[in-house]
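ok posting inputs for the protoporphyrin IX containing FE job
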Amino acid sequence: MKASAPLYYGDYLKIRELLELQKPESERVGVEAHDEMLFIVIHQVYELWFKQILHDLNSVLRIFSSERVEDSRVGACVSRLERIHKTQKLLLQQIDVLETMTPMDFLDFRDLLIPASGFQSLQFRQIENLMGLLPEKRLSFGNQSYLARVSPEDRTKLEASEKTPSLFVRLESWLERTPFLSSEGFSFWAEYRRAVETMLEKDRGLILGFKDIDPAFQKQQLDMLERTRGSFQLVLDEKKHAELKGQGAWRLSFPATQAALFIFLYRDYPALQGPYRILQGLIEIDEAWTQWRYRHALMAQRMIGTKIGTGGSSGSDYLQQATERHKIFQDFTKLSTFFIPRAALPKLPEKIAAELSLAYAR
Ligand code: HEM
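and the output
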C-alpha cells in the first residue's frame, strides 16, 4: 500500500462540507425562526440513518437473492436486521428532541416549506419498497400516486426499487425451500391437525364443564371456539388459504406460511434458530415502523392540529391511516394464532429431529 499523509479527522469525515449543509429558508428570506435549524438537523440525521438502513437492507437482499442461502450467511443477515431494528429505535427517540419545538415555533417557518414534505423522502420510500410494501397497498391522497409528488430523477429511482424483488419476496421463496416439512411415512401437517383438534376438544370440554354458566355466554364461547377452529384452515387447507389471499386478508404463499409456522413451533432445534431469528427480526422491524409512524402522526397532530400537511395530505389523519395500512410483515406476526403449547406439539421422527440438530443449507 502506498504511503500517504496521515488522515485528519475533519477531512476523513468531511465535517467542513457536512456543516455547510444547513441552510434555513427563514434566514434566506430574512424571517426570525430560531427552531428551523433543529428542524433541518433532525431531518438530515434521519436521512443519514435511512442511508445506513438501506446499506444493511441491500446487503441482506443480496444474500437472499442467491438460490441457496448458506447457514453461515444467515447469521450475518440476523445481525444486520437487528441493526436495522436498533436504528429504528433511535429514529423513534429523535421525535422527543423535535417535540421541544412548539407548534408556535414551527409556525414561524412552516409556510416557507410548502409544498416540500417528508412525503417526498426518496430513501424512506426506497426502504418501504425494498422491504415489500406493494404499490397497490399504498394509501394515496388527491387520487395521485406517491410518485407524482417527487422529482423525475427520484421517480426513476423509485420505479426501479418497486421492480426490485423485495425482502418479503426473497424471504417467501427462501421459506418455500424449507426442507423437513414432509418425508417418507411422516406428514407433519396431518400430525399438527390432530394436535390442534385435541387442543380444541379440550377447550370445548372446559367450556361445557363450567357449572352455573349463563347459557347465552356458554353459547358465545362455543361459537368463538368454532371460529378459532375455522381460522386454522388458513394453515391446513390450501384452498381456504387461496381464498383468503384472494380477498387480500393474507399475503404469504401457502408453502411459505407453513414453513414459517414450522420454524416458529420447532425453533428450539439448532438448525431452526437462525431462520427463527430472521422471522423474529422481520416482526420487530415491522412493529418499529408502525411505532414510528404512529408517533410521527401524533407529533404532526400536536404541531398542526387538523390542518393539512405541507405536502397537501389531510395531515395527521392521513398519517394515522397509513400506519395501519403500510404494515408489511403482518402475516408473520399473526402466525401466533396457530401456535400450540410445546407439550402438545407433534413429536418429530428421530431422523428429522437428528437432522434439525445439525446445521444445513438450502
Ligand atoms: C414538525 C415536524 C413534522 C410535521 C408537522 C410533519 C408532518 C407530516 C405530514 C402532515 C405528513 C403527510 C404528508 C403531508 O401532507 O405533508 C408527513 C409525511 C411524512 N413525514 Fe413528516 N412531519 C414532521 C417531521 C418529520 C420528520 C423529522 C421526518 C423524518 C424524516 C418526517 C418524515 C416524514 C415521512 C417519511 C412522511 C411520509 C409518511 C407516509 O407517507 O407514510 N417528518 N409529515
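notes: The radius of gyration is 25 Å. The chain has one domain: 17-186+233-356.
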